[in-house]
Amino acid sequence: MEELFNLCWLTLQRNIRSFMFTVIILTLGMIVFMLNGLPSEYDKIYFDQFPASFRFGIATASYQVEGGASHRGKNIWDTFSHTPGNIEDGSTGDDACDSFRNYETDVKNVAALGLDFYRFSISWSRLIPTGVISEGISEAGLDYYHKLLNKLEEEKIEAMVTLYHWDLPQKLQDYGGWTNVSLAERFQEYADLCFKSFGPKVKRWITFNEPRETSLGGYEIGYMAPGYKLHGTGTYNTSYTILRAHAAAYRLYAERYRNLQFGEVGITLNCDWAQPVDNSVANRDAADRFLQWYIGIWAHPILLGDYPSVIKETVKTKTNAKGFRKSRLPEFSQDEVDYIKGTFDFLGLNSYTTRMVQFKQCQDEEDHYNCDQDLKAFADPTWPTSGSSWLRPVPWGIRKLLSQRWIKHQYPNYREIIVTENGVSDRPESVTLCDQPRVNFFQNYLNNVLMAIRIDEVNVVGYTAWSLMDNFEWAHGYTERFGLFWTSFDRPDKLRTMKSSGLFYKKIVEARGFPNKQTLLDWLDEVDTY
Ligand SMILES: *[C@@H]1O[C@H](CO)[C@@H](O)[C@H](O)[C@H]1NC(C)=O
Ligand SMILES: *[C@@H]1O[C@H](CO)[C@@H](O)[C@H](O)[C@H]1NC(C)=O
After folding, report:
1. Which family does it belong to (predicted)?
2. Is pLDDT at 1 greater than 80 in this prediction?
3. Per-residue model confidence as pLDDT tens digits over 334-389
4. How much is the pLDDT for 40?
5. Which of 181, 243, 265, 319 has fewest C-beta within 10 Å?
């Protein structure tokens, strides 16, 4: 008994000693902790600058900001937005931000952020009211873009100009829109007018913005203008004409304008990162198919030649299984493959979010671009949300997409990448200038772009925030806001006011990156109390 008691006593003493030891360690830990601040997400930030030649900009698109609808020819978004039921809040882009009158303010605001370039788009029907050049050109339209470009020149801001950001002249839609192969020629004539008129003032041209959305949203599913539902053929059919139109504009510039104007021509493709749910071959292949159908269908013909073979084979097999004689995917002749291949000086990339991807055999009876991929794509429920159902902030996704995990590996000849859009939406109930989630979004996405450059050695040469100000967000009207400036749509002057995110972006641009933790924390303090 006594032995047992002694043993217990000894154990207790030892335990008291180790208990005291633990208390001392914890106290020391607390002191160190209090002196250094919280170990936090900021310890994951990669501190460095972007390369000296890196360019920062911000973007808008004609139909989303211009307004001034009565001063131009009608386009497909006029028709679509004026059709009841198509736009969430029943609104239209008739007035939008009225950049038709406020373009000087827009340029001043770009300058206030200290940016190197402004990405905007030209409204085809503002220059050529019917879209057919032989039917007439609008001098007032030419004048509008000259004034905008002159103002940019005055402020020493480079122009990055998109030729097609979704607003096709209505007359060309009446001819079938992008299902009509002759539109490649109409587009080349329009591009010719733009190069000839504005080329000396434009450093970079983007032929098409997100052709995937035009084809899939406009012709296959129908949630965007012109609202066609050509299931199984809409995307493939229109990709053929759009790729030819892109190449026609690129080749025209290369042959006739490049030696005089010294600009560059590229295309802007959009893509989400696809994260396989696990490491199995079936799920990794499914994630790869997601990316091939999303961006490969456009990038492969332009960078490497022809559609990706996985798409050609799959669509042919699925078509045969259904007993069709002909594949739903158009076939390029060798001449057409050669004509489209190599038509890029840079690759524009818009990326906002990520999807988890899992193999899933598609059982749909109906042919469909989505069904052809045999997969299920979804958001991880732990990811934060935003003002848009499709947009879940996943900052590491953009780095994986850019790096050897995908684009750098798939297209070793990619030359230069410019992130031509990246940003996040919200749906505030009242005026909200302190947009903390957007500050956080830009901090983490820009930092991942920086890591793609510095660690993964991807040649990203520019970054473009979307968007300069809140604007007409397509089928969601004015319900979703993406701006770094708040737009007061209820005021006749459509007043713009800088948000916290604008101030934060300006800090990064000024410092050309992320100098150190203390500076970042100081910026965040300043932005918080803005
Ligand atoms: C295709 O477009 C051209 C104009 O580019 C038009 O003349 C022709 O009639 C259109 N074809 C069809 C089938 O509508
Ligand atoms: C696309 O569809 C239209 C209308 O059905 C057809 O006239 C055209 O030939 C198709 N284009 C291609 C490239 O298959």
Report:
1. Belongs to the glycosyl hydrolase 1 family. Klotho subfamily.
2. no
3. 999 999 999 999 999 999 999 999 999 998 667 789 999 999 999 999 999 999 99
4. 64
5. 181
For the chain, which domains are there? 53-528 (3.20.20.80)
Q: Where are the alpha helices (DSSP H) in 386-496?
A: 395-402, 407-410, 436-454
Which among 61, 235, 272 is positioned nearest to 161, based on CA atoms?
61
Flag whether pLDDT at 32 surpasses 70: no
Nearest CA to ligand 1 atom 12: 175
Q: Measured in angstroms, how far is the CA atom of residue 477 from the centroid of ligand 2?
A: 31
- pLDDT (tens digit per residue) in 46-71: 999 999 999 999 999 999 999 999 99
Q: State which of 180, 237, 244 you would mutate to test the pocket of ligand 2, scoring each by most atoms of that ligand within 8 A of its C-beta.
A: 237
- Contact criterion met (CB below 8 Å) for 469 and 496: yes
C-alpha span between 494 and 471 (Å, rounded): 10
The answer to whether the CB of 335 falls within 8 A of the CB of 241 is no
Q: What is the DSSP letter of 71?
A: G
Pull the structure tokens for residue 438.
């957007």
Cα 179 from Cα 230, distance rounded (Å): 10
